[in-house]
Amino acid sequence: MSAREPCIVGVRHHSPACARLVAARIAALRPRYVLIEGPADFNGRLDELFLGHALPLAIYSYLSGAGVQRGSWTPFAEHSPEWQALTTARAIGAQLRFIDLPAWHSAMDDQPNRYADAPEADHEARAEAYERALGERLAIDGRDALWDHLFEQDGDVDALALPLDTHFRQLRGDDPGSPGNAARETMMARWIAWAMARGDGEVLVVCGGYHAPALARRWRDADVAATRDEPAVPKPPATEETPLRHGSFLVPYSFKRLDAFQGYASGMSSPLYYQWLWEDGSAGAGRQLLRGIAERLRARRLTASTADLIALQTHALGLARLRGHAEPLRADWLDAVAAALLKDAQEAPLPWTYRGTIRPGTAPLLVEVMDVLAGDRRGRLAPATPRPPLLDSVEQELAALGITLDGEREIDLLVPHGRRQSRVLHRLLLLGIPGVTRVQGPSLALSGERSERWRLAQPLEQQAALIEAGAYGATLADAARALLEEKLRSVRDDVVALAQGLNTAALAGLAAVGDALLADLRAAIATAPRFDALGQALGVLYPLFRHGELLDVAGAPLLAAVIEAAYDRALWLYEPPAAIAEAESFAHLRAVIALRDLVRGRHADAGEGRQDLQLELPRALAVFARKAHDTGAAPLSRGAALGALLSLPQLSQDMADTVDLTAAIALLGGIAAASLGDAVAGLLALAREQLAQEPAFIAGIDALVAALDDTDFLRALPALRGAFAWLPARERGRLASALLQLHDATHLSQRALTAPLAGDADAVALARLAQQERRVWDALAHWGLVAADTERAA
Prior knowledge:
Blueprint: E1 7-11, H1 16-29, E2 33-39, E3 57-65, E4 68-76, H2 81-92, E5 95-100, H3 125-137, H4 143-151, H5 161-172, H6 179-198, E6 203-208, H7 212-218, E7 245-252, H8 255-258, H9 271-299, H10 306-322, H11 330-341, H12 364-374, H13 389-400, E8 407-412, H14 416-430, E9 436-440, E10 451-456, H15 461-469, H16 476-489, H17 495-508, H18 514-526, H19 531-547, H20 557-574, H21 585-607, H22 617-629, H23 635-646, H24 661-669, H25 673-691, H26 695-706, H27 710-723, H28 729-742, H29 751-754, H30 760-782, H31 790-793
Parallel strand pairs: 1-6, 2-5, 2-6
Antiparallel strand pairs: 3-4, 3-7, 8-10, 9-10
Helix pairs in contact: 1-2, 6-7, 9-12, 10-11, 14-16, 16-17, 17-18, 17-19, 18-20, 19-20, 19-21, 21-23, 22-23, 23-24, 23-25, 24-25, 24-26, 25-27, 26-28, 27-30
């Protein structure tokens, strides 16, 4: 080939056939320059790729800061054409360059995997239509099966070049591609023109097949300076306020992450199968596949007898002959699995006939088979590989605190050293680092619980996760804070998520998150539409206000303003009558409890001389009183409002005529039978300490239930059972004893009233049987067959 024309080899990423072709072309042509689709900003560090890693691995490139977070992976397996280009070119002493845009370029915004080859919207629709039409013409179902049929069969490697070139030209045609692809191709064309302009040897280019036809046309028109300098690599965007962090590091990768069925839009699915194909050809890959499937299914105790496996192999060989394959290919084996091993009809399509994650409803046997073909091979970086600063920061912090990532660890939160350990582990948990699991501990920061228990380990994925998390910052605190801020930017209108984010920050000791988050919270509260959400947020915010030393927000003016705004809006949303769906009952009661706790706590703080929160407490009492007397309000909410007043006796003295036990019984007496349990639930949820063991309340409830006829009792029963679930087991036992004493039945065990049934349906069925029995006795007494008091005596 003349140096006046570059050799452009279009490939499908992670294709063994393309990898063989690339290696053969480089060995035969011995080019001076080998240009590879990859991040050009990594060119100064190409030697890092050859330190002796165990594949697969990836280059992870990132840009982060000032509300921007971009990351992109450039993965390599042994059977990747790009990896074979790197290793073969290095072996012959060629000049190696990556020629694609950096990950932080805007063209990569929607490209988290550089070697993804899924069509982009309408710009690559032509490519998708072409492959679909070709598959229909050849009666081949699925893009991967079509590729294998055309190119992955054993044969002469050199004979692949012309069919591949034709295929990719038909795939692309004259389509200009998306703006992102156009920008990338402009950059790659400049590199080709640069190498050609040097005129000191052959130039070989390895790129995605979709790009190849465009580059063959565009490199001559590339804007190349007259100098012999390499094309300038775009610099990351900068902001005046905050410098953006950017960089690239090698990351250990895994076959699972490469697999399209795990969600990666890679060039090939089933990476372990294609590794077998690379190593042993079609026949060897088939043997490995059959052995792997047999071992997996038997390990999972799924049906796979020797006869089944013989039938599978026979079926695969037959399909291969029918389809013109010298040896069964991947789709032949998988179709044979479906024919020989599946016993029932399938609702979901066979997973190898489409791209993307496996769909719900797929047979477990097929899920296991696809997992076998994906493989669990994991990469490992050489010890001398440069690492982002975050890894050293984490190791130093863990060592300083005496934390080793092995086994379970219990931490005492009431001592400073324990709190420091807890913060570090919460930061790792926030970053999603594998091997760090919180088994037990308080849900709210500084809730008074003494200990946490953690399960710690060092899985292989941990190093990769830490390297990727390094995009957020050089220290553990910086990275955790940046990630939390990024997550919270997407929920700025969600008061619950923002309040929980503040609690997460407190647990992780991230004080710097506070002010910006509180400002977002204040804005979200002003437009919050739901009382339940505001109440849930207050249940998080007020404990932080009182005990937020861990986050330096205890008594903070901005947090006080947020709580005051939430208090004001929560009361405004609570007062109007509104229906409460059964599914929302618990959330509503928790919100009323949070509001009541705020009122009670603020009253106690004032008694201690603390005046940090400016809350109009009489307003809350008035709202509770009006809600309790509002016959249009939901019974659950009325009961909760009255329960709140009963639980605030010192504040409610001027309303004594409305909040005594008589008022509670009077409220219940005016509630329809079907809703009686809802009102009782509201009362007990807010005032169980005041009511559950009060004889007058117990007697009043008993009288109301006894006055119900059979039909109303059946209507009231399910909700009543749910209401008493608010009482702890010991209190339910004491209540049962009081009821037995009330009915002179102390000779019976408490279990006569507290023994659990399987569910409300059983309780209702039991009540219906009792009702039917009474009707029978009444009928017998009516006809004089038994005495009128026989039933009672029995």
